[in-house]
Automatic annotation (TrEMBL):
Keywords of this entry: Methyltransferase, Transferase
Organism name: Falsiroseomonas algicola
Limits of the Methyltransferase domain: 42-102
Annotated protein name in UniProt: Methyltransferase domain-containing protein
One Pfam family hit: Methyltransf_25
UniProt xrefs under InterPro entries: Methyltransf_25, SAM-dependent_MTases_sf, tRNA_Adenine-N(6)_MTase
Molecular function as annotated in GO: methyltransferase activity
CDD domains per UniProt: AdoMet_MTases (cd02440)
Annotated GO biological process: methylation
Amino acid sequence: MTTEDTLLGGRVRLRQPASGLRAGHDAVLLAASIPAKPGQAVLEAGCGTGAVFLCLMARIPGLRVTAIERDPTLAALARENAALNGWADQVTVLEADITDPALRPRLPACAHAFANPPYWPAGTPPPEALRANATHAEETPLAAWTTLLAHRLARLGSLTLILPAARLSDGIAALTAARCGSHTLLPLWPRPGQPAKRILLGGRHHGRSPARILPGLALHDGDGTAEAVLRRGAGLGL
């Protein structure tokens, strides 16, 4: 069973499974952080139902999207959602596992790459199979995601991840393994003065600039900054 929901204050329509892991703030925040320009090619790994690339396309016109999803049900929904929002001709969804060597020759060159990868190594997964696939990494290390994303990434193209704050060290190591330097960190705080639970972490392919820590975003800040991102599609400038 699926439901039809909206993101970005109704600008994006999204059909997704009624149970399991459902699109929310993480998808919108990741999309807001990607520094793409109109007409560029972008790549997403583990796209699920397409929430991230759809929010990105709502903010930046004319993008050409290649998205990878191994689950047939979710891949079909991602294609359906691209059509539902009028972008079917700009989106290619590849049904594949990121560890499959046959995938890399199918990837086009891209200016930006991004993912909301599984949060944790294999352990005790949640009960729903789709939720387990989305949040638990099984035997696939984070570096497998970043090296796949960087395979056809342009020099100085961006690679962006959203991760639990506890995986900051893993994220930096995975970006480095993919030859992505110039690291940029944006903490996501539940409220001002509280520790970050999520982070946005970016790098540039073959980048050599010093690392940067940007002013973080409080998701419940009261001053309208988070609301502008989550409901009106403002960018974060990572």
